[in-house]
Amino acid sequence: MRPLVIAIDGPSGAGKGTVARVIAGELGYRHVDSGAMYRAVGWKALRDAVPLDDDAAVAALAEAAAIDVTGTQVTIDGIDVTRAIRTPDIDRAAAGVARLPRVRSVLVARQREMGADGGIVMEGRDIGTVVFPDADVKLYLDASPDERARRRANDPAHTGVPAAVADVATLLTQRDEIDRTRTASPLYAAGDAIVVDTTGKSVDQVVSEAMALIRRQF
Ligand code: DC
């Protein structure tokens, strides 16, 4: 069987991470969370006091960084930032650096290298539109703002999340607005992506829908 490239995009809390991990496990593929790369760069920029809107400086910092997002652990320059990158401060920092075109081109080049031989499930915002426009399968997962906020509020990986789901919803909506309206690679569903509304669906349901689409490609 040919090793496929599977692109999964969508806003925060749409279920990309869980679905991508399960699909990659079933297929024996590598799972890459591209958002974790933007988060790691945002973390390093904050640590080094590099202004989050300085494209050249943040791109240089990203270029010089060794970022590893293999499996469940995220490291940058050998430092384990798995937990540190899931905080509201890093939500903001990552959305900031993700707007910068030069930073994106550094990370997109690395993402393409990782997918060069196929056998990969990559999740993000621009995977089906920019990183792998020729991906074998493109999924765009979405869910209602309330459901996305509930999932985020209950996600143990994220710390410092407001207790009230309504406050989480406000923060998610603000951040999604940045991702959707930025000029560099905004979030949208590729014309040939299959849009799946995950509202009210279990992980199993979404995974079986996705697996049915994927099997058609073999
Ligand atoms: O998926 P996430 O919330 O961990 O992503 C963190 C930030 O990075 C978020 O603002 C969206 C952005 N991002 C992006 O611009 N492109 C990607 N391929 C992945 C994430």
What does this structure look like?
- By secondary structure, this protein is an alpha/beta fold.
- The chain has a single domain (5-216), classed as 3-Layer(aba) Sandwich (Rossmann fold), CATH 3.40.50.300.
- Helices cover 48% and strands 14% of the residues.
- It has helices at 16-27, 34-47, 55-64, 88-97, 101-115, 127-131, 145-153, 165-181, 203-215; strands spanning 5-9, 30-33, 67-68, 75-76, 79-80, 120-124, 137-142, 194-197.
- The strands form 2 sheets. A 5-stranded parallel beta sheet has the order 2-6-1-7-8, sandwiched between helices.
- Helix 1 (16-27) packs across helix 9 (203-215), helix 3 (55-64) runs parallel beside helix 5 and helix 7 crosses helix 8.
What percent strand?
5-15%
CATH superfamily: P-loop containing nucleotide triphosphate hydrolases
**Spatial ordering of strands, largest sheet:** 2-6-1-7-8
Which small compounds were modeled alongside the protein? 2'-deoxycytidine-5'-monophosphate
Low-confidence stretches: none
Fraction of residues in helix: 40-55%
CA(first)-CA(last) distance:
6 Å
Largest sheet: 5 strands, parallel
CATH architecture: 3-Layer(aba) Sandwich
Shape: globular
Number of helices: 9
Count of all domains: 1
